[in-house]
């Protein structure tokens, strides 16, 4: 069974705008590859780590996103601009019940849509009105 997750895209200010000293323009090569979720944060709430034993990842390659939301898998379009990353916003997902619920739904809601990314070393942060996701390589 497939679930369609839709979210309205929104953008925020960027830590990696192309202007200014020391700033870095993001590229598909820089964002591409596999990232493992460290924390998720919805607006007005503290950062939360994924439940013990649950795995949440996103991999962006060739304008596609492959996502693991614990026991579910999702896929959809992914666009990397110089100051934004857009995943979906429509994702095709399996719909198994995961023991990490409702964290898995929160993760997908924050991830789906346009976000403002920043990359520092092996850490990727995606920020949007929907919340903040922090990943590591």
In which range does the helix fraction lie? Answer: under 10%
**Overall shape:** globular
Summarize the helix and strand pattern as letters: EHEEEEEEHEEE
**Strand order, largest beta sheet:** 2-3-4-5-6-8-9-10
What's the total count of β strands? 10
Average pLDDT value?
A: 85
What's the alpha carbon Rg, rounded to whole Å?
14 Å
- What about the largest sheet? 8 strands, antiparallel, barrel
Describe the structure.
The relative contact order is 0.28. Strand 9 (123-128) and strand 10 form a beta hairpin. It is built from two helices and ten strands; from the N terminus they run E-H-E-E-E-E-E-E-H-E-E-E. The longest helix is centred in the last third of the chain and has 9 residues, at 103-111. The protein has an eight-stranded antiparallel barrel with strand order 2-3-4-5-6-8-9-10. It is 9% helix and 45% strand. The chain starts with a strand and ends with a strand. With 137 residues, the protein is mostly beta strands. The chain is globular.
Topology:
Elements: E1 2-5, H1 28-31, E2 33-41, E3 56-61, E4 64-69, E5 72-80, E6 85-87, E7 91-94, H2 103-111, E8 113-120, E9 123-128, E10 131-136
Antiparallel strand pairs: 1-7, 2-3, 2-10, 3-4, 4-5, 5-6, 5-7, 6-8, 8-9, 9-10
A few lines on this structure:
The protein is mostly beta strands. 9% of the residues lie in helices and 45% in strands. The chain has an 8-stranded antiparallel barrel.
